[in-house]
Amino acid sequence: MSQLAVTVIGPDRPGIIADVTEALVGTGVNLEDSTMTLLRGHFAMMIVCAGPLDEVKAALEPLRGELVITVRTMGPEHRHAPLGAPYMLSVHGADRPGIVAAVTRMIAAAGGTVTDMSTRLSGGLYVLTAEVELPPTAELEMLNRALEITAEELGVGVTLRPAESDDL
Amino acid sequence: MITDWSPARLDVEGAILEVVRAPHPVLATESAPVDPLDPEVIQLAADLIETMRVSPGCVGLAAPQVGVAAQMFSLDVTGHPKTRTCHGVFVLCNAVVVEASRNEKAREGCMSVPDFTGDVKRATRLTVAGVLPGTTEPVTITTDAFEARALQHEIDHCNGKLFLDRVAGAHAVYPRKTYQ
User: Which parts of the sequence bind Fe cation (chain B) (predicted)?
Assistant: First the structure.
């Protein structure tokens, strides 16, 4: 039994999740983390699960065709220690190439890491939302200024704000 | 008056109880109403306050979180940066929401769900009715901001609901990065 990464993408229709997960259950797979969403009419799934590689591949075989499926083994779970406080990053503005690259480069340059991100394009509007972890040593003021300058060059708006949760 | 009430009125020592974690079934159980004059209820009230007091960052603790399916919880949002109206420290029995308005979304964490946080919409203007332990007179609390959110979170516990039952979207649950 190894940890597997299963990715599935294909034109959306009712029943994709049911079909894929039913096939996985049949091989005794236990689903762990997954994320699934609809991207411009294509349903996309990424699943991390524990199961036997060859049996999982065989079980998913009949679904190939309209669905593009990959199955591969992964090393043991790798969790980096939390870098620091979580932040929410949002960017929106007129679409053009290079927005994601430029903004995420700023985060990386500050020693930060993106833990979750999604982007959407609708008409001419591009929207990026990301969860970002910044180390305590990050110069927030410098980062904010760098983001502002980049955003201005790209013609978009950017905000970075703490995503602290309240314990109840 | 709820602001006149203090734990000293319970006249018993509180004990520190173990906080249970999901998926413990008591957290998904609708709790039974309590008799606020019952000595066991008064003892549990003192225990809730004591357990809340020794748990870092804890502003509220419901009976189901210490394994007891009873309609009561302790609360104290004193000094929290998001608190506006504040009724100090109290325990409320058999609490129900009377009026709720002006929803706002914020990220919540819970001692019973230590590995996740989630975005939850809650009323920021709230009136709650209940009874203080050791008394029989109904009290109403009208509050806002953080105290309103905390009250709704604790009342949910008493009804077998976690913040996980109320998250604001399919991608609104997050792994918690640090937990003290």
Answer: 110, 153, 157
User: What are φ and ψ of residue B114, in 5° steps?
Assistant: -70, -15
Residue with tokens 């109904």: B138
Chain A partners of B177 at a C-beta cutoff of 8 Å? 82, 86, 133
Give the pLDDT score at B178.
61
Q: Which of B80, B82, B177 sits opposite A82 (nearest CB)?
A: B177
pLDDT tens profile B137-156: 899 999 999 999 999 999 99
Q: Check: CB of residue A100 under 8 Å from CB of residue A128.
A: yes
A168 and B59: CB-CB below 8 Å?
Answer: yes
Task: Calculate the average pLDDT of chain A.
Answer: 93
List, for residues A54-93, the tens digit of each pLDDT value: 999 999 999 999 999 999 999 877 777 778 889 999 999 9
- Residues in chain A closer than 8 A to B117 (CB atoms): 165
A17 Cα to chain B: minimum distance (Å) = 14
Query: Which residues lie closer than 8 Å to B139 by C-beta, 6 or more apart?
Result: B1, B2, B92, B129, B130, B131, B132
The catalytic residue positions of B are 154
* C-alpha–C-alpha distance, residues B32 and B98, integer Å: 19
**pTM of the full structure:** 0.91
Q: What is the ipTM of this complex?
A: 0.84
- Residues 6+ away with beta carbon under 8 Å from A53: A2, A4, A71, A72, A73
Chain A, chain B: beta-carbon pairs less than 8 Å apart: 45
